[in-house]
Specification:
Elements lengths: L1 E5 L3 H12 L3 E6 L2 H11 L4 E4 H7 L2 E4 L5 H4 L10 E4 L18 H8 L4 E4 L6 H5 L2 H6 L3 E6 L2 H13 L3 E4 L6 H17 L30
Parallel strand pairs: 1-2, 1-4, 2-3, 4-5, 5-6, 7-8
Antiparallel strand pairs: 6-7
The protein binds NADP nicotinamide-adenine-dinucleotide phosphate.
Length: 224
């Protein structure tokens, strides 16, 4: 698969290297072409680097790791039409972790900016440090990657990309769910930094085996 990044920071570099290790063709995009080329040199695996515009043109899947909207970052967003855009962004942490409720997610704002692009929310609930672990180790710990989007095929592509690098993909439905997933991103950063659990804290959904008998009386009709 041809995968590009917009931005060459911690997330783009990490995910770019991981996908290149899996045999994908990776192109790092930056505001500064030379910076992207030096990230590609560091990354190896035949990765390339250039401008954000070149990256947007190269990839079938674009890993979007900047908080600014594509209409500001790219000279034209036409080139993104029909492509998969992975949004890993979280909002800036407010003073004292005093997050407001999310009434419109960053992913929905992205989708409104590039309506012909298949925006998929993913990879915002684990810290960069987790990606430094090998996919094999991550797999052992059943780390969830929460994924939502309005296009089923795009979502399946991202679920496969998550699985390849060790994560357990969790289908969270339509892009509206990004409000909840970004809330999880805020929560895990609060646990990591606010409550000092450190960057290896993660959130996972686990399914337990069913109880063999309902010795507590089972679920009765009531609140859901
Ligand atoms: N780091 C984590 O552990 C982590 C985990 C989950 C989610 N996230 C989220 O993922 C996103 C990226 O995080 P990150 O840690 O990769 O950040 P980062 O290291 O600061 O990288 C972001 C990159 O975006 C580009 N950029 C910055 N400001 C820009 C602007 N005004 N216009 C265009 N490009 C700009 C820069 O790339 P160039 O200089 O190459 O243009 C920069 O290297 C954030 O929203 C963050 O909340 C981060």
């Amino acid at each position: 698969m041809k995968i590009s990044t917009i931005g060459t920071g911690n997330m783009a570099r990490s995910l770019g290297i991981l996908w290149a290790e899996q045999g994908h063709e990776v192109f790092f995009g930056s505001r500064n072409s030379e910076k992207a080329q030096s990230v590609a040199e560091f990354s190896g695996h035949k990765t390339q680097g250039g401008t954000n515009d070149e990256a947007a043109a190269f990839g079938d899947v674009i890993f979007y790791s900047v908080r600014e909207l594509p209409s500001i970052v790219l000279s034209s967003t036409e080139v993104l039409s029909g492509k998969v855009l992975i949004d890993c962004n979280n909002q800036e942490i407010p003073e004292g972790f005093a997050f407001d409720p999310i009434s419109e997610s960053l992913a929905e704002k992205l989708a409104a900016d590039v309506p012909n692009t298949h925006v998929v929310k993913a990879f915002n609930t684990m810290a960069q440090e987790v990606f430094e672990l090998s996919p094999q180790v991550i797999r052992e710990y059943n780390v969830s990657c929460f994924i939502c989007g309005n296009n089923q095929q795009a979502k399946e592509t991202v679920m496969t990309l998550a699985e390849e690098i060790g994560f357990f993909p969790v289908n969270c439905g339509s892009l509206r769910s990004a409000r909840m997933i970004e809330g999880l991103g805020d929560f895990i950063r609060f646990m990591i930094a606010g409550m000092e659990l450190g960057p290896y804290a993660t959130i996972s959904v686990n399914k337990l085996p069913e109880a063999k008998n309902q010795r507590l009386g089972g679920r009765q009709a009531g609140y859901t």
